[in-house]
């Protein structure tokens, strides 16, 4: 005769059934929540897209404020580069350039190869007076789409504007410098006296009369400096003044001519020293303002602007954390830039080996590195091999660094 389960056994069975029911309810609840989230997410994407499309319709109707509202709702639901760039375009239309620049930057943070964002930010920065930055944006956009006539025109216009701005700044600086040098050399007072003498009477030297040039006027350093075509101006002045000035030199030979030549040489030397000092100060100022790049675009623009100046390129590398290189470059590192970076690293290797090794190591972690190395020319590879042997793995390199660099040699395809 079968035994009936005792009370303890029945309680265990009942508890097990209760647990199964709880798990079933829990799974149903989770499944319900997941379906709700998926449905809500899909609705969000649909709503974000519909808001963007509605914004485009308002833009076509030139209702820019309404378009901005739609793009803003689209961004709130699902941020993407296109919505930011579209809102930036609407901001440009109502001359809110600061907001347009900020939106283009946000778009580029999401997609650093988005051509329209570069072009629109160039327009915004041009209007904000950031001409140098606008040129960099326009240049990069043109590099991404070199056949675009619209981008070519934009780049040419901004480049011309920047050149004009540079000339104006240089004019002011040169004028100020010239006046200061004239005062220092004591030539200003003498020049004024000579001009007055020419206007009032002929000068007599060694019994010969020198007649003033009729209708002569003071040719100020300011006018010469402000001329955009200095060579043409120089020829024009030479035609008018040279014959009389030559006769003056032949007829009148003041006893102090040696002193004048000496002063001219001193003035020339002073100008050269001042120019060198100004260049040194400018270099130091630029070096102070170098900031770590956040994208391949920013790095490449800074790197190209410092082309030919290893000191500034080295400073750019030093302010950039080596471990951030994969995130900065993503898929945008090119073989010429890689080659140039390694050469720059070699220039400060003995000064800061730890930083140099970290750079060489972290560059290998950049996406598509193996493909980039394959694109190096045979000449570049030979030069890198020479750098490895003569600099990185020389007898003076500590063993702990030499071992790491020896292992990295194969990553750069530099086997002997």
UniProtKB/TrEMBL annotation:
Region (Disordered): 198-263
Domain RNA-polymerase II-associated protein 3-like C-terminal per the UniProt entry, residue ranges: 292-381
Gene3D superfamilies xref list: Tetratricopeptide repeat domain
Domain of life: Eukaryota
Keyword Signal listed: no
Coiled coil regions, renumbered to chain: none
InterPro entries: RPAP3-like_C, TPR-like_helical_dom_sf, TPR_rpt
Keywords assigned by UniProt, alphabetized: TPR repeat
Listed name of the protein: RNA-polymerase II-associated protein 3-like C-terminal domain-containing protein
Species the sequence originates in: Brassica carinata
High-level lineage: Eukaryota, Viridiplantae, Streptophyta, Embryophyta, Tracheophyta
């Amino acid at each position: 005769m079968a035994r009936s389960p005792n009370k303890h056994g029945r309680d265990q069975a009942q508890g097990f059934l209760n647990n199964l029911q709880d798990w079933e309810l829990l799974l149903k609840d989770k499944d319900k929540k997941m379906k709700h989230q998926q449905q809500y997410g899909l609705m969000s994407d649909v709503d974000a897209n519909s808001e963007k499309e509605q914004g485009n319709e308002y833009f076509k109707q030139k209702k820019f404020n309404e378009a901005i509202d739609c793009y803003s709702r689209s961004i709130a639901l699902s941020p993407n580069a296109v919505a930011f760039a579209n809102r930036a375009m609407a901001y440009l239309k109502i001359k809110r350039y600061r907001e347009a620049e900020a939106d283009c930057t946000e778009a580029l943070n999401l997609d650093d190869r988005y051509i329209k964002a570069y072009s629109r930010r160039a327009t915004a920065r041009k209007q904000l007076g950031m001409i140098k930055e606008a040129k960099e944006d326009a240049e990069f956009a043109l590099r991404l789409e070199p056949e675009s006539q619209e981008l070519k025109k934009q780049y040419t216009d901004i480049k011309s504007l920047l050149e004009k701005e540079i000339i104006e700044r240089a004019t002011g600086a040169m004028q100020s410098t010239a006046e200061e040098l004239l005062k220092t050399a004591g030539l200003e007072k003498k020049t004024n006296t000579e001009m007055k003498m020419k206007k009032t009477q002929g000068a007599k030297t060694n019994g010969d009369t020198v007649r003033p040039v009729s209708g002569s006027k003071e040719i100020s350093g300011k006018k010469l400096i402000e001329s955009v075509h200095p060579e043409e101006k120089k020829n024009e002045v030479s035609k008018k003044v040279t014959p009389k000035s030559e006769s003056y030199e032949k007829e009148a030979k003041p006893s102090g001519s040696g002193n004048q030549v000496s002063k001219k040489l001193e003035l020339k030397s002073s100008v050269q020293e001042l120019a060198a000092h100004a260049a040194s100060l400018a270099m130091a100022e630029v070096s102070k303002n170098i900031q770590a790049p956040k994208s391949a675009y920013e790095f490449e623009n800074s790197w190209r602007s410092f082309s030919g100046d290893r000191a500034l390129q080295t400073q750019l590398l030093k302010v950039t954390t080596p471990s951030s290189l994969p995130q900065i470059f993503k898929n945008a590192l090119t073989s010429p830039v890689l080659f140039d970076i390694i050469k720059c690293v070699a220039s400060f290797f003995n000064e800061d080996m730890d930083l140099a090794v970290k750079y060489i190591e972290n560059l290998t972690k950049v996406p598509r590195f193996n493909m980039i190395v394959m694109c190096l020319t045979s000449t570049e590879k030979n030069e890198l091999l020479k750098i490895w042997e003569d600099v990185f793995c020389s007898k003076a390199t500590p063993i702990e660094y030499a071992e790491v660099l020896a292992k990295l040699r194969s990553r750069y395809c530099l086997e002997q």
